[in-house]
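Field log, afternoon session.

UNIT: design team B
ACTIVITY: writing a sequence onto a fixed backbone
BACKBONE:
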């Protein structure tokens, strides 16, 4: 029976749908009762989304807690209320002629242990209500800062006003908040304009399948590509 499938499916999430949308589409396509994901990606983000199927949903907390790796683009000079490209522009400033050394020093300043306050436009819940629902009503509430760790945060390509970067971080890190704060530190503001998750724990985007391909599979093909949790390194 299809409901007996227990495994892990690595999806290369496209831009647009939510992580929950991907879960629903896989559940409906293969008629699997229990499907979950291990770490939300915002609708504008792409990349590695780990789905757990059947009894493997019990492992979601384990995989959710692992370190993450992303590639993205910081666009300087424009600040938004959501700290990313989907928000309303709140300020625009000219981008100064920043040297590569100044930019690299700015990135280095965000490595190590950091206290980060979750943005209002996020799925984090306060008293059971997601912050983004309060933000849509124009409300702002106090949020508790939490400890995160940034193992690596470095520019990979600088072509102002855009800076491509790579970041390796602990779970729960808001990359758009890093970009927002770095833009402020560089004196002109900024926002996250592109984000792609390339790794989560032992899983990498190289082994993920596009949603378009998955939706063409039959159930037998899904069985071939689902990872058996018992075969993973402990």
């Amino acid at each position: 029976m299809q409901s007996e499938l227990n495994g892990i499916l690595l999806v290369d999430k496209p831009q647009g749908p939510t992580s929950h949308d991907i879960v629903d589409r896989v559940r409906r396509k293969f008629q699997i009762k229990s499907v979950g994901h291990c770490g939300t990606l915002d609708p504008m983000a792409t990349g590695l989304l780990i789905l757990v199927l059947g009894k493997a949903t019990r492992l979601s907390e384990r995989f959710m807690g692992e370190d993450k790796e992303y590639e993205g683009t910081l666009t300087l000079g424009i600040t938004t209320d959501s700290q990313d490209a989907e928000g309303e522009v709140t300020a625009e400033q000219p981008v100064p002629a920043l040297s590569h050394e100044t930019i690299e020093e700015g990135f280095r300043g965000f490595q190590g242990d950091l206290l980060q306050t979750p943005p209002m436009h996020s799925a984090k819940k306060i008293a059971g209500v997601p912050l983004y629902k309060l933000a849509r009503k124009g409300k702002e509430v106090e949020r508790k800062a939490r400890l995160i760790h940034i193992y690596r945060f470095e520019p990979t390509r600088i072509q102002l006003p855009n800076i491509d970067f790579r970041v390796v971080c602990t779970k729960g890190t808001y990359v758009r908040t890093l970009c927002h704060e770095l833009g402020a530190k560089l004196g002109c503001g900024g926002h996250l304009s592109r984000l792609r998750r390339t790794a989560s724990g032992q899983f990498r985007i190289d082994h993920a399948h596009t949603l378009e391909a998955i939706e063409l599979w039959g159930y037998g093909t899904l069985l071939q590509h689902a990872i058996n949790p018992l075969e993973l390194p402990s």
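LOG NOTE: DSSP finds seven helices and 14 strands in the chain.
NEXT ACTIVITY: expression trials, pending approval
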